[in-house]
Write a structure and sequence with these properties.
The complex is a heterodimer of chains A (about 850) and B (about 220).
Chain A: H1 3-19, H2 24-53, H3 55-59, E1 63-67, H4 73-81, E2 85-98, E3 101-110, E4 121-123, E5 130-132, E6 141-145, H5 146-151, E7 159-162, E8 165-175, E9 189-193, H6 197-200, E10 210-216, H7 219-229, E11 238-241, H8 247-295, H9 300-336, H10 338-341, H11 351-373, H12 395-414, H13 417-446, H14 453-462, H15 466-500, E12 508-513, H16 518-527, E13 536-546, E14 549-550, H17 559-566, E15 569-573, E16 581-586, E17 598-602, H18 603-609, E18 616-621, E19 624-636, E20 647-649, E21 660-665, H19 673-681, E22 686-689, H20 690-729, H21 731-743, H22 748-786, H23 794-816, H24 818-821, H25 824-831
Parallel strand pairs in A: 3-9, 6-8, 15-20, 17-19
Antiparallel strand pairs in A: 1-10, 1-11, 2-3, 2-7, 2-10, 4-5, 4-8, 6-9, 7-8, 12-21, 12-22, 13-14, 13-15, 13-18, 13-21, 16-19, 17-20, 18-19
Helix pairs in contact in A: 1-9, 2-8, 2-9, 2-11, 2-20, 8-11, 8-12, 8-15, 8-20, 9-11, 11-12, 12-13, 13-15, 13-22, 14-22, 15-20, 15-22, 15-23, 20-23, 21-25, 22-23
Chain B: E1 2-10, E2 13-21, E3 30-34, H1 41-48, E4 56-58, E5 60-61, E6 64-65, H2 71-81, E7 82-85, H3 97-107, H4 113-123, H5 139-151, E8 157-161, H6 169-186, E9 189-193, H7 197-201, E10 205-210, E11 213-217
Parallel strand pairs in B: 3-9, 3-10, 7-8, 8-9
Antiparallel strand pairs in B: 1-2, 1-4, 5-6, 10-11
Helix pairs in contact in B: 3-4, 3-5, 4-5, 5-6
The chains are: A alpha+beta (about 850), B alpha/beta (about 220).
């Protein structure tokens, strides 16, 4: 037979098998795996594409130089000399007030020429048609975004107070380069003309301000400028081009992608288990067919080739269906994560589709084909002697192939060798542990056999195939664990954290208080029922040296460390240590007259940056190097919502530099109107509402959790497919046993109860494994990431075991009830 | 076939299932192999069809030395020359009657598999049941499908293993009529293992086996 005829025959065999329902489980498993992988793949691809396409727009320029101190005018002059467009932007947080309402806004003072790259679009009214802005707001006017507009309950044409100025709202910004990124971008935005900046009175020594120079133009001139500017930048200035735009977003996205990939991978691994079980059943059910084919002339090679082609076609078809589901799935994911992403997403590319198909085919290759390859070795004599099976049906090669494919999939989807190896290591430890637990539970249940009746038959059923039952328990356990973790454990952790907050914890921060405002503000609070407001001094400085070693972003591998050295620290001084702080190494300076060049560093920061006791740290404070020796390490209770600092010195060391004051306090919502008076009296101060910020974080967490839950939904469905595959793989034996029992006089109800008992036991064991896993995971997250004392909720166990038992019993019952409704003779004929 | 023998060892004991059997079957002849259970009938059939390997001896089919060929060579020879009918029908449950009959033609790469199979099923009286699955057919109907499958390739040699063993006497008689009728029409050589005395009487020759040895050539 030539190849074309073989392919045609394989296709016909595929259709015949599919029609007879022989392939449903394998197909479902592949579809789920591909759908899970492509849902995540398409979504992250769209976000990546958006980032790449909008790199210019995100930056708003080809090159940006930014600093927390004013930039040298020389930088702009040289850019213009080279024929480049250059516009300065000053950015800072400030309260914006209108009538009785005030909101914290991200203020940007811009000059004509902004944005040098990309498009600024504005509308005259809320949700009205927008147009390209030809210039920047006229002096005396501001443009604000929709959030600020609705938050301040504006109706058009009103004036808003920004610092000391009252500026008219002239337009609503619908699109602004440099902020289109939206990722957790925080506060609502306001644009004002740079000419109005001075009159607002908001820029004062020590204020949190970001100055930037945005440059665009001919690429060669940009490169020339880059070369010229690099050696002239002040310490602490950063120059960002398109190629290094938003590294933190990219790395956040990569982490999210890795995590979602692994979430999807759990579905893939379960699908692998389902395929392995279903392929085994397929093998058993096709031994006769293959023996018959051999009998009527098919060679071993032909049988193997036909099955190979048959399954390759099945793989491609199922992958296609999985892709279609993936396309729908990623749309849902993008909708749910709209607020987090907030970028217009382009259409997904082809690469995730190829990845999805590759995963589907790898699963077939690893888990279906090794057992099926042995179909060629079916003894032809089986047509006469049915007891003859395949020698060593799947064999070690089959298991080895599956193991290699699983490792390859984990390393590939983790997208990072180290991370992948870590996940592999954990899996290598967790899976045998889960198997051991499942085995122990099954053994324990087997001890209950002597209780008699249907229960005894049911439990005997568990031993029908111990390995298969264990795989079922672990696979289902994984699915249930994902659900428990994302529902009970997540809310449990959140509640534990909320409970850990003292009820009187401050709920508001006040920052940017100038030294001459300290006393008036204290009096203001005293007059409004908060008698002893503690205001802490704060200077900003960048860590530039540890001992004699200069530090920069490049010194560290760790993301957090890189972020930390890249920004300015809030430094403070105090005689007495703050409440909620505890010395873990060294000693706090007791007396007021202690040596002033001492530093007390927060323990976590010290660990991240590799700072040890006795190290001499040098900070660049307002252009001056200020050094001190680490004489103590502190643990800080950040959850207290008190003002805390990474680095504190005795009075003296940081004094004399531009300073602002900061405080936190508790004010009930009913008295919140007091704050409007405060903002009006002290326009430069910035108020941060912790409750609001927490609500925002909570909302983002909810969205992220929903996305993760959605991906884990595939895991659960895959778990159910494993259950069905497991039920189906023992179906023929189960049917046979049921018939024997019925011919021996067992009633339907008795057989029914036996099956229910068997599935209940499997479900309860899976629920127990799941509860153990979820509790362990919750404990790990609480200890490792949240630093909480986590007391596991006993409900996790109850719901895991009872829910697992009920769910699996129901699914198993539905899967086997036909055994009881068909006449024994008919089934005997099928089985026979 | 000459001096065909089969021994198996179970532990330390060497068990002779078939011991030195020799006979010849002429083209177009119908031969029944009879004997009590365990006399070696099925083993003989398996060895004659190349489904098993003998301990000693040789089998020639139409001049080809069956055991001079490898496993795939024997399968190819069966595909070209041999048809089978089994006691348990051996139909593929995932395929309809028509597809079951098409299969040997498809495996030999024939283009006309469908019309040929359909014609053969109509010949065995299953024209209205072409698209039924085995489980939707009665035992007699299933054996008709198996007969159609065996004859559709126009084999020179047909092996039948207790073809009426799973059927009631009336259906069994119909199946015998059909099988022998087709056998005569196509001039096929028939070698059949059976317990059925009625069937034995309708064959040209009877080989009787006892304890793995041929005890008479009628």
């Amino acid at each position: 037979m030539n190849l074309v005829r073989e392919i045609q025959l394989a296709a016909r065999l595929l259709v015949r098998d599919a029609r007879a329902g022989e392939l449903t489980l394998i197909a479902a498993a592949i579809v789920i795996a591909v759908a899970a992988v492509t849902t995540v793949g398409f979504f992250t691809d769209r976000v990546q594409q958006a980032l790449t396409q909008q790199a210019n727009w995100l930056l708003g320029a080809d090159l940006v130089i930014a600093d927390s101190r004013p930039l040298s005018p020389q930088l702009k002059d040289e850019a213009r000399r080279l024929g480049l467009t250059a516009a300065e932007m000053t950015r800072f947080p400030s309260m914006v007030v209108q009538g009785e309402r005030s909101m914290l806004a991200d203020v940007r003072a811009v000059e004509p020429g902004f944005p040098p790259r990309g498009e600024l679009r504005i509308a005259q009214r809320l949700f009205g048609p927008d147009r390209r802005a030809e210039t920047v707001p006229q002096p005396g006017t501001v443009w604000i975004d929709e959030r600020l507009y609705t938050g301040l309950e504006l109706h058009g044409g009103e004036r808003v107070s920004v610092g000391n100025s009252a500026l008219r709202v002239d337009a609503i910004v619908t699109h602004e380069p440099g902020v289109a990124l939206g990722f957790l971008s925080g506060a609502p935005r306001l644009l004002l003309n740079a000419a109005d900046l001075a009159s607002t009175g908001l820029i004062q020594a020590g204020s949190r301000v970001r100055y930037s120079l945005q440059i665009a133009g001919d690429p060669a001139a940009i490169e020339a400028y880059r070369g010229w500017a690099a050696p002239r930048l002040a310490a602490g200035s950063r120059m960002e081009g398109i190629r290094d735009a938003r590294p933190e977003i990219r790395s956040a996205l990569e982490r999210a992608e890795r995590f979602l990939n692994l979430a999807a991978l759990t579905s893939v691994l379960l699908a692998a288990a389902a395929i392995a079980l279903a392929a085994r059943r397929y093998l058993q059910r096709h031994l006769d067919a293959c023996a018959m084919m051999r009998c009527i002339g098919a060679s071993q090679g032909l049988i193997v080739r036909l099955h190979f082609m048959h399954f390759a076609m099945l793989g491609v078809l199922c992958a296609g269906l999985g892709l279609a589901i993936g396309v729908v799935g990623q749309t849902l994911l993008a909708t749910w994560l709209r607020e987090v992403v907030a970028v217009a997403l382009p259409l997904p590319g082809v690469v995730p589709a190829l990845h999805g198909v590759a995963v589907g085919l790898m699963l077939l290759l690893g888990f279906a084909l090794p057992p099926l390859a042995s179909l060629g070795r079916v003894p032809t004599l089986r047509v006469l002697r049915r007891e003859l099976g395949v020698p060593n049906a799947a064999g070690l090669v089959g298991y080895a192939m599956g193991a290699v494919i699983v490792c390859a999939l984990i390393l590939w989807r983790a997208q990072d060798l180290r991370f992948g190896l870590t996940v592999l290591g954990w899996s290598a430890a967790a899976v045998p542990a889960a198997c051991a637990l499942a085995w122990l539970l099954l053994r324990g249940l087997a001890l209950l056999r002597r209780r008699g009746g249907a229960w005894r038959f049911g439990i005997a059923g568990l031993r029908r195939q111990t390995l298969g039952t264990m795989v079922q328990v672990v696979a289902l356990g994984l699915g249930i664990m994902a659900l428990l973790t994302l529902t009970l454990i997540r809310t449990d952790l959140l509640h534990t954290w909320q409970r850990s907050l003292p009820p009187e914890a401050p709920n508001r921060f006040i920052i940017n208080v100038q030294p001459d405002q300290v006393e008036p503000i204290r009096q203001f609070f005293a007059a409004n029922g908060i008698p002893s407001l503690q205001l802490y001094p704060m200077v900003r400085g960048r860590l530039i040296r540890i001992n004699e070693r200069a530090v920069s972003e490049d010194t560290y591998q760790d993301d957090r460390a890189r972020r930390l050295v890249n920004r300015e620290f809030n430094l403070s001084w105090a005689t007495r240590m703050q409440t909620g702080n505890r010395i873990v190494a060294g000693r706090w300076w007791e007396a007021a007259g202690a040596r002033s060049d001492q530093l007390s560093v927060e323990r976590g920061l010290a660990e991240t940056l590799g700072i040890r006791m006795g190290d001499r740290l040098t900070f660049d404070v307002a252009g001056t190097p200020v050094a001190g020796e680490v004489t103590s390490l502190r643990s800080v209770d950040w959850d207290s919502f008190n003002v805390n600092f990474f680095v504190v010195a005795p009075p003296g060391l940081f004094e004399g530099y531009p300073v602002t004051y900061v405080s936190s306090f508790r004010l009930e919502q009913a008295k919140a109107s007091v704050l409007n008076t405060l903002v009006k009296s002290f326009p430069n101060v910035v108020l941060i509402d912790v409750a609001q910020a927490l609500a925002q974080v909570q909302q983002l967490m909810d969205q992220a959790a929903r996305a993760v839950q959605f991906v884990f939904l595939f895991t659960l469905v895959a778990g159910l497919v494993v259950l069905y595959a497991a039920v189906a793989s023992t179906q023929d034996e189960r049917v046979y046993e049921a018939i024997i029992m019925r011919t021996l006089g067992a009633s339907r109800a008795q057989i029914n109860r036996a099956h229910l008992a068997e599935f209940t036991a499997i479900g309860a064991a899976a629920g127990f494994v799941a509860a153990a896993g979820a509790t362990g995971l919750g404990y790990f997250v609480a200890q490792r990431f949240l630093h909480l004392d986590y007391a596991p909720d006993p409900w996790v166990w109850a719901i895991g075991v009872i829910g697992g038992a009920a769910g699996v019993a129901l699914a198993g019952y539905i899967g086997t009830r036909q055994v009881l409704t068909v006449a024994p003779l008919k089934i005997l004929r099928q089985v026979g | 076939m000459a001096d065909l023998a089969k021994q198996v060892s179970t532990g330390n004991v060497e068990l002779t299932i078939l011991g030195g059997v020799s006979f010849e079957v002429r083209t177009g002849e119908s031969v029944a192999v009879v004997g009590v259970s365990g006399s070696g009938k099925s083993t003989l059939l398996a060895l004659l069809a190349g489904l098993d390997t003998p301990s000693t001896g040789m089998v020639r089919i139409d001049g080809h030395d069956l055991y001079g060929l490898d496993e795939d060579g024997r399968a190819a020879l069966r595909g070209r020359m041999v048809g089978f009918i089994f006691q348990s029908f051996q139909l593929l449950p995932a395929m309809t009657a028509l597809e079951n009959v098409m299969l040997p033609l498809e495996l030999s790469g024939r283009f006309d598999a469908r019309p040929a199979a359909q014609a053969m099923l109509e010949r065995v009286g299953l024209g209205p049941r072409l698209h039924h699955y085995p489980k939707q057919l009665s035992g007699g109907e299933q054996q008709r499908v198996a007969i159609a499958r065996a004859f559709v390739t126009r084999p020179k040699l047909l092996f039948a293993d207790e073809p009426t063993g799973n059927l009631d006497p009336a259906t069994g008689a119909q199946i015998i009529d059909l099988m022998l009728g087709l056998n005569r029409e196509s001039g096929t050589t028939l070698l059949m293992v059976t317990h059925d005395e009625a069937l034995t009487r309708r064959c040209d020759r009877v080989l009787r086996l006892a304890a793995g040895r041929l005890v008479n050539h009628d």
